[in-house]
Write a structure and sequence with these properties.
Keywords: Amino-acid transport, Membrane, Transmembrane, Transmembrane helix, Transport. Helices cover 72% and strands 1% of the residues. It is mostly helical and 470 residues long.
Length: 470
């Protein structure tokens, strides 16, 4: 099979970017659009949002709206940079171009670590659903099966990943649209067997803010991390048929649709179901709502949807981790063996990313009370670190692009630089809120420690490279 270790033009050591010739171009616009939509719709929305509702009550709608605005700004900034310079390393390449190799090293390897641990967590979640359907079967066997399937998918041509993710995302999006349709009918009293609830659940039992500002803060933190995953579309864009047009269109269409799905879902749930109903946390808010409406077999239907969401996330995260690792190596920031391309696919990077993910699963069995908890805490705020690098890089690169290559600004950040500074201020506020809350303070510290360690290694490598060059 053909192979190469040469850096693709999209990820040269100087950080410059162009369409990725080394990687294959097997993704179509429909793949990118669904990756953008489906990449962020995961178990965090279907199940994890229940904890946010329990903490914030009906004001969870406000929490998701605020965090959704922040994510829209971040994605607009990332879309601007990725349309101007498509690269499989995405924000890592942009950070390197803006601040030097240490920044690309830090952002890239932190994100790779996050994705690999997430693959393990998603595998565990999917295995738990399967053992519920097939009692007596070992969880690790299901995880191993899923890993083999998606590792194999990602080892093959990128179009196979695109097809898997297209249909996974289509099913998730279809489930959300159907849920919203049923919910709206129930709210207006048009659903057979149900009465319009009015504002009873929104204003009764403690009001719209039952736990005050503290509850809203907890809900805000929960909602921020539920939006993680959109970044994968800008990584995938480098392997699309038309990288510039593809990422521009995918970012434009995905932002408002995801805001509709997230904010709309939360509004439907808290309007139809009392926020303090224990089923919202125990079963998940979507299952609790469908049960409340008397929809038959709601629990099993949503279990299938959650399983699809988890498997989709595993597939996307193995892909994203392998491309990020391959990009870093192509820029001289990792073991050269990981950067080898076979048929346009970084297969060693796919294998290493999958093995690391499976190792995280094994740690959850062997050392659940120390090492595995440490892994979870370490990745707790990495997505915020990535968003910070995106915003800071856009501040620098926008001015540089306007000065040197203004024709590349196909997508532009709104009201630059005001909204970029607003986004940075929002991230700083979330960091401060995390430091206030006992449950998230530990995550902030461990993530901060990992970020500082990676930055220090990156600085040393950058100094050493400068010394060799001189």
């Amino acid at each position: 099979m053909p192979r190469t270790t040469a850096p693709a033009p999209a990820d040269r050591k100087d950080g410059a970017s162009a369409p990725a010739d080394g990687l294959s171009h097997g993704l179509k616009q429909r793949h990118l659009s669904m990756i953008a939509l489906g990449g962020v719709i995961g178990a965090g929305l279907f199940v994890g949002s229940g904890a946010g509702i329990a903490a914030a009550g009906p004001s969870i709608v406000v929490a998701y709206a605020l965090s959704g605005l922040l994510v829209m700004l971040v994605m607009r900034m990332l879309g601007e940079m990725s349309a101007a310079n498509p690269a499989s390393g995405s924000f890592s390449v942009h950070a390197e171009r803006a601040f030097g190799s240490w920044a690309g090293f830090t952002a890239g390897w932190a994100f790779w670590f996050l994705l690999c641990v997430a693959v393990g967590l998603e595998g565990i979640g999917a295995a738990k659903i399967m053992t519920g359907w097939f009692p007596g079967t070992p969880e690790w066997a299901w995880v191993a099966l899923f890993m083999l399937v998606f590792c194999g998918t990602n080892l093959a041509a990128v179009k196979n990943f695109g097809e898997f993710e297209f249909w996974f995302a289509a099913l998730k999006v279809g489930a959300i649209v159907l849920f919203l349709g049923i919910g709206v009918l129930a709210i207006v009293g048009a659903l057979p067997g149900s009465d319009a609830p009015g504002t009873t659940n929104l204003t009764g039992d403690g009001g719209f803010f039952p736990h005050g500002s503290e509850g809203l803060i907890v809900g805000l933190l929960a909602s921020v991390f539920a939006y993680g995953g959109l970044e994968t579309v800008t990584i995938a864009a480098a392997e699309s048929e038309h990288p510039v047009q593809g990422v521009a269109k995918a970012v434009r269409t995905a932002m408002w649709r995801i805001a509709l799905f997230y904010i709309g879902s939360m509004a439907v749930i808290v309007t139809l179901v009392p926020w303090d109903d224990k089923a919202v946390v125990e079963k998940g808010p979507y299952v609790a709502t469908l049960d409340h409406l008397g929809i038959p077999a709601a629990g099993q239907i949503m279990n299938v949807v959650v399983l699809i969401a988890l498997l989709s996330a595993m597939n996307a995260n193995i892909y994203g981790a392998s491309r990020m690792a391959g990009s870093l190596v192509a820029r001289g920031q990792g073991p050269k063996a990981l950067g080898r391309l076979y048929g346009g696919v970084p297969r060693p990077a796919v294998l290493v990313s999958s093995v690391f993910g499976f190792a995280c699963v094994l740690l959850s069995y062997w050392r659940p009370n120390d090492i595995f908890i440490w892994l979870l805490n370490t990745i707790g705020a990495i997505i915020l670190v990535v968003w910070f690098f995106i915003a800071a890089s856009q501040l620098v690169l926008r001015r540089r692009t306007e000065r040197e290559e203004p024709e590349k600004l196909v997508v532009k950040m709104w009201a630059f630089p005001v909204l970029t500074w607003v986004a940075l201020a929002g991230m700083a506020a979330i960091f401060l809120l995390m430091a206030r809350e006992e449950g998230t303070r530990v995550q902030l510290y461990w993530t901060g420690g990992l970020t500082v360690l990676l930055a220090a290694i990156g600085f040393v490598r950058q100094k050493a490279a400068a010394g060799r060059a001189s």
